[in-house]
Amino acid sequence: MRYAYAITTALLVGGAAITMGTNTPVGAQTAQNDERAMLAAAPRAGAPMSFADLTARLQPSVVNISTKQTVQVQNNNPFAGTPFQDFFGQRGNNGRPVTREAQSLGSGFIISADGYIVTNNHVVAPGNRSAVVDSITVTLPDRKEYEAKLIGRDPASDLALLKINATNLPFVTFGDSTQTRVGDWIVAIGNPFGLGGTVTAGIVSALHRNTGQGGAYDRYIQTDASINFGNSGGPMFDLNGNVIGINSAIFSPTGGNVGIGFAIPAEQAKPIIDTLKAGERVQRGYLGVGLQPIDENIAASLGLPKNVGELIARVEPNEGAAKAGIQQGDVITKVNNTPVTPDNTLSFLVANTKPGQKIPIELYRGGKRMTVTATVGQRPPEEQLAAFANPDGDAITEPDAGTGEQATRDSLGLAVQTLTPQIQRQLGLAPNVRGVVVGAVDPSSDAANSGIQRGDIILSANQRPTTTADELNAQVRASQTSNRPVLLLVQRGNGAARYVGVKLKAR
């Protein structure tokens, strides 16, 4: 997944980025996609002969957005400490950070005659932690430039609202993306690669597309219309001229368009933009759980069908889920009577629930279905959620290989040993970690294919704690009897534990 915007470091090497616009005249102070005005301009449904009239009315409302950023770059001199250090790098800087300028380019669209503009958050956000956005410039199709004020932004949904000091601007309005169907024609307008107003057309390829990036808003309209770097923040129009999506990202192994672009649906974007315009903070529901999708092996190990529910990998203390009795290893199948599926993820359903509301949650635990009632909390800032996730660290020190149980080695492809205090210190684990440590992995086993490595800690098997090799072996034998994969809870270093369904070797 790549954001469909361009960020250039041309100024780092003394170059310059060129942004060109078009000479499209600015329209009158009426909505450029007003239903009556668009009636004559819209091509015949299902078989458009041309998008020219539609484009002529909509293009004046689409703008180019650029930022100037100050970035600190570490001055790494490979010859530091040698007689040649003054001939390379910057003399006398002694490795201290050097300040440079950078730019980012993207698109946006005007939603009011007095200059409110919608775009993606990543278009106007700093490029990295060491960058600061100094200014945001909006360029209209007639090449008029305005310095923009950031009214508000919402990183979770990747949306931002800007304001320029202008009047009588052409503008467009949001449509109802819930009525959009796969196969509908759409038109995308933006500024790919900073070239200025560019129009592409295609169809809606998929709805509610989950890209696997996670989060409450991983739910897009997919299109085959050409989307490239610089299109981010630009509008996706239906043939009535309504904004049904905001072009945001592309899927591409090459970095260029391959016919898979993603847009934030209007049904998600409009309420957030309205909240930002009112100067309020976007409120979302939160349960306090870490989630993991259920792959084929995990589903088989639990005796569940595929594509049903999501697995709870972590429960935050004192949050709604913990207070409701939800546990690690539970599979959530329904939220407020709505099934949890790849199209309706748990994150999406909970995030769109009002904080403070009590909702029934149906779950599967230990072969039994049950329902609990949870009070939805207030979703913390994204930075705090990232800290909760505690992602895997770098390389870990591996323990000495142990003997383990031969049966476990032969059937599971793993040799394990007890997690002793010495190994625990060697791996830098928290004192409360309990499990067995992987001493060796058979490279031909499904465990190896599942990403388990030497030095990983197996906390449980089939949702039963495993503090000894015998306890692990007992669960392996149980999985052999039931002819199911064994469900392991695996932790690497002090990172978040994850569930892995591992197929056993044939006996």
From TrEMBL:
Keywords: Hydrolase, Periplasm, Protease, Repeat, Serine protease, Signal, Stress response
GO terms for biological process, alphabetical: proteolysis
Location of the PDZ domain: 280-349, 395-494
CDD domains: cpPDZ1_DegP-like
EC class: hydrolase
Location of this chain's protein in the cell: Periplasm
Superkingdom, taxonomy of origin: Bacteria
GO molecular function: serine-type endopeptidase activity
EC number: 3.4.21.107
Annotated positions binding substrate: H122, D158, G230, N231, S232
Pfam families: PDZ_2 (PF13180), Trypsin_2 (PF13365)
Catalytic activity line of the entry: Acts on substrates that are at least partially unfolded. The cleavage site P1 residue is normally between a pair of hydrophobic residues, such as Val-|-Val
Catalytic site positions: H122 (charge relay system), D158 (charge relay system), S232 (charge relay system)
Similarity annotation: Belongs to the peptidase S1C family.
Record's protein name: Probable periplasmic serine endoprotease DegP-like
